């Protein structure tokens, strides 16, 4: 049976849910999941709906066109309708840290991530053996002060050639350029090794240690031009105490980084995240 | 503006959401919250909806009658429609432990619980001073092997006289009789001091200590005739280690019991819990 | 049997533990708890030891003098030796929020806190009825821009008259003056309603909501002259999501504030916290 | 500098700590970590101590002999003294589930686990490609009702040939035979996919789903002859709700299993776990 996922986002108005669910009824869909959210302050409406198409002859394309014509225009909606079978293509950007890369490729190989990974891009050669080990094409794109323009150009060519839908920075230690960000708006996922907005920027574990916090965290967010200021997808924490050194913080943090990044990837890949006002609605 | 909360529960069928949201539209309601759940295995549909009635002349009673006539019968629904302003009346049953009682009455006095507490019933006199301190009528109903019938009769009379909607057992150490359970089906909330189904029955902290667990828990559930087997509303846990004695378990457990019971009371009082197949759907 | 708690803090040196445990042996003490910590970076040694005095004729005073003379001077120790039976005297400072006050007084009445509470001081009259309800003397010390000097003078007189050992700010919304801080160095416990160092200062829940975090927290710390920058004693967190409004954050936060502050009070009252370099060693 | 880890376990007696720390002083050790625990109920004493040997000429072997002669005999101690540089050798037993295997080998390759992994043993061929991918020798030892004796014999030969110190069952779905258990007492680590003692045995996620719990867990424990009854090393939990299917439980559980097992391996490999009375003392 074909399955579709519908994401909607518009000004809150009377009758949206009734109209949309009537539409699904009309196209012979059986709603298996519906969640909606109203931001009362900003008067914005969000909806996520999953449906099985009970008529095998249904065309997802036709439904898409129908929805645009009969509903989306009237309500002035931002919306997407996905065929659940089509896996999004994900690019991995890495530098030298290997723990998130091992974790993602392990999960990918174990069939836990609903994505395709056509390529890994790195500014260093260090992690190429891991890419080889998992049979993922690895591209070395050096990225220095002097070749930023050239480096970005190469990255974008690779991404477009492989029809990449979204990018995951698995402890990629470089600033993403505005041009790349604008091409992949709300589609570049970063993992920051602190409980944002505490300790943005470099060396957060060292800062956390110095401040004497009792809990450390990790934050996965979409990349925007403001460093570590993008919409937060997922966060988690773990306890630390006076017996833990900075190295312990780093080791415990690796576990957090792995887990939080993996959750964010899953949420994004399953189209459960919507962005507005630099915040996320996560239908999980 | 009048506000209503609608809870629905029926066999899953096509068009329920569209029908219900069309109805709300018809009675000039503005949907501010809608959540639904389909148990795919058992083919059961659940829905919780909050709505503001934009027409000040609307009658909740009339809407109720209208809903029954035009929708509920057709879909063979179990349903409730609450006026959000009407606070449910809650009875507290206690014995000798005071920590949950202090916590509930503190929250109640602070205005955090959307309930009325017309009375406290106890099989001992020990906690009467606390009831007095908070100005809640306290009834001593002794409950021994010999007066079970009489004791239960007194309890039920008190509950009915005060039009009690639901009962909270705040570490009440007596078995509830089947007659009382049948009068308040899914309306008696207990707090058990373990992570159920681990350690049911008496002295769970001692058993947990003996087993050497690294985490202890507390569980709030509706009371059924099977001891500690009723539908679970909420659970939480805390870490323990070899340095903790049984007394430490008990002390840490008190914090859990307080918090978990308070959350369960809030969820129930705000009509966010639905029960089926000895499980709960919690729309939170 | 008499019980003592010994806290030590000095430069790390060879033989400290052997010397101290030999001393306890000499004074006929049975060590029931010993924990120590070495800050390798700063070369500082910390120790907490509990002991039962097996000789009923032992004098805690004599042991104290002996320890100073035979050990503390040699090792240049900062140290304290407490008689476990002597409860510290705690003053509560409150303003208008009542949830922490209810929680602390409920725990106090239930016998969970090893303290005496001789008085409550407030800049407003709002919470006097709660103090009355729990029979704790309540002092109204108004605190405005114009009477800061006078207000502080009254506070200090009250604290000294009642021989207060430490102060708890239970959502007391005033800045503590430097004079009072210097009198109670590392003895004034505050609860801040955020996961510090994120969101210091006013309205942290509003800032957290605006930033779109997925987790909120509360932090209990000793008050220093730098606002919200003092040594952290305890922190905890809870999850939030897009469905939560600022009011939900505030309500969930109340639970955190209560719990985190209560834990910090217990740790301090049981002499489990040592402070250095604006951080805490918590032997728990 | 040479580093040693000393684990002690004996009847509680006066003067143990003083005696042991004096000994370390004598052999020119600088204590960098000391933790001890007294089980007051059973009158048992536990201690873990780490020390740097400041004299480069020190012999760990000589210290070991000295300790036995001068102290261990007198106090009737069970004890171990490890050279921190010697990594324990760990065997992995697997069946068909791959998520724990990927996780462990990823961490191992990333240098996070202080062990050597000389071999993987499995009753199926399914995971051989993963062993190959990470260059770990893989031995297929089929294990059916009819060849139990033969299978066990092969396992033990492989373990002895590779001088294995401890065994990790990474979702190995077979019962371990008593002979193997007695050879590796408290040295076989299992991961059970529930919050023990809730849901022992087969299909715990299905049972948890049926019971309607709000939290699921995973437990790592040493294997004993009683199934799922061995000493617990580590546990952790995650929240579930009515929206989660059994498959969601299984997926969320995989994350728990990975993390909890990895933590248990680390604790064991760093000699932080001591066992008595079917419980663990975990010095972390």
TrEMBL record, chains A, B, C, D:
GO biological process, one term: 'de novo' IMP biosynthetic process
PROSITE patterns from the UniProt entry: ACT (PS51671)
Catalytic residues identified in the record: 228
Metabolic or biological pathway: Purine metabolism; IMP biosynthesis via de novo pathway; formate from 10-formyl-5,6,7,8-tetrahydrofolate: step 1/1
Catalyses which reaction(s): (6R)-10-formyltetrahydrofolate + H2O = (6S)-5,6,7,8-tetrahydrofolate + formate + H(+)
Enzyme Commission designation: 3.5.1.10
Top enzyme class: hydrolase
UniProt-listed InterPro entries: ACT-like_dom_sf, ACT_dom, Formyl-FH4-Hydrolase_C, Formyl_transf_N, Formyl_transf_N_sf, PurU, PurU_ACT
Ranges where the ACT domain occurs: 5-88
UniProt keyword annotation of Transport present: no
Keywords: Hydrolase, One-carbon metabolism, Purine biosynthesis
Keyword tRNA processing: no
Pfam families named among the record's database cross-references: Formyl_trans_N (PF00551)
Domain of life according to the entry: Bacteria
An example Gene Ontology molecular-function term: formyltetrahydrofolate deformylase activity
Family: Belongs to the PurU family.
Cited PANTHER family: FORMYLTETRAHYDROFOLATE DEFORMYLASE (PTHR42706), FORMYLTETRAHYDROFOLATE DEFORMYLASE 2, MITOCHONDRIAL (PTHR42706:SF1)
Listed NCBIfam families: PRK06027.1, PurU
Function description: Catalyzes the hydrolysis of 10-formyltetrahydrofolate (formyl-FH4) to formate and tetrahydrofolate (FH4).
Name used for this protein in its record: Formyltetrahydrofolate deformylase
Organism, as annotated: Flavobacterium gillisiae
Gene that this sequence comes from: purU
């Amino acid at each position: 049976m074909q399955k579709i996922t519908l994401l909607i986002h518009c000004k809150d108005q009377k009758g949206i849910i009734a109209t949309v669910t009537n539409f699904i009824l009309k196209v012979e869909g059986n709603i298996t999941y519906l969640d909606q959210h109203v931001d009362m302050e900003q008067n914005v409406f969000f909806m996520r709906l999953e449906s099985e198409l009970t008529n095998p002859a249904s065309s997802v394309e036709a439904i898409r066109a129908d929805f645009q014509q009969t509903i989306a225009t009237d309500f002035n909606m931002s919306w997407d309708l996905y065929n659940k079978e089509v896996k999004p293509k994900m690019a991995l950007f890495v530098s030298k840290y290997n723990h998130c890369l091992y974790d993602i490729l392990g999960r990918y190989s174990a069939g836990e991530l609903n994505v395709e990974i056509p390529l890994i891009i790195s500014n260093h050669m260090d992690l190429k053996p891991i890419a080889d080990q998992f049979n993922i094409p690895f591209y070395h794109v050096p990225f220095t002060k002097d070749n930023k323009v050239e480096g970005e150009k190469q990255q974008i060519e690779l991404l477009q050639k492989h029809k990449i839908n979204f990018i995951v920075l698995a402890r990629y230690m470089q600033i993403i350029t505005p041009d790349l960000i604008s091409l992949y708006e709300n589609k570049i996922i970063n993992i920051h090794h602190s409980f944002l907005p505490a300790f943005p920027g470099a060396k957060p574990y060292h800062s956390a240690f110095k401040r004497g916090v009792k809990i450390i965290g990790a934050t996965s967010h979409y990349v925007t031009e403001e460093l570590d200021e993008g919409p937060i997808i997922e966060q988690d924490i773990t306890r630390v105490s006076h017996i833990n050194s900075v190295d312990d913080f780093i080791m415990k943090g690796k576990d957090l980084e792995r887990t939080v990044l993996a959750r964010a990837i899953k949420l994004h890949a399953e189209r459960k995240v919507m962005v507005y006002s630099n915040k996320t609605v996560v239908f999980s």
